[in-house]
Amino acid sequence: AKLELLVGTVTSAEPHEGADALFKTWVDCGEAEARTVGAGLRAHYGDAAELVGARVLVLSNTKPRNLAGFKSAGMLLCSTDADGATALLRAPEGAKNGDRATFAGLPD
């Protein structure tokens, strides 16, 4: 199966009370409703407000699964550098919510 990566904007985020490492986020991927996505990023982002407004890439064709008491409908893509710092991968400039991410040199 192919991975489907959609451009989205984090519209809301909050620490999940039942999981120390987890944020519960809502991401606008250009669909009828925002996706609820769990993100294990609390060790890397001190405040949920840092995520709000972020233009991100969402792995969107995963099966929704229960994650600490709520359904998570995707994954936020991140990168980690050689020093262990983890950050969200940002959508390209000019990309719109719902656009499908592609990579030069790879088939769509």
UniProtKB/TrEMBL annotation:
It holds the Pfam family tRNA_bind. It comes from the Eukaryota. Keywords: RNA-binding, tRNA-binding. Residues 1-102 form the TRNA-binding domain. GO terms for molecular function: tRNA binding. Signal peptide: none annotated. This is tRNA-binding domain-containing protein. It comes from Aureococcus anophagefferens. The lineage of its organism: Eukaryota, Sar, Stramenopiles, Ochrophyta, Pelagophyceae.
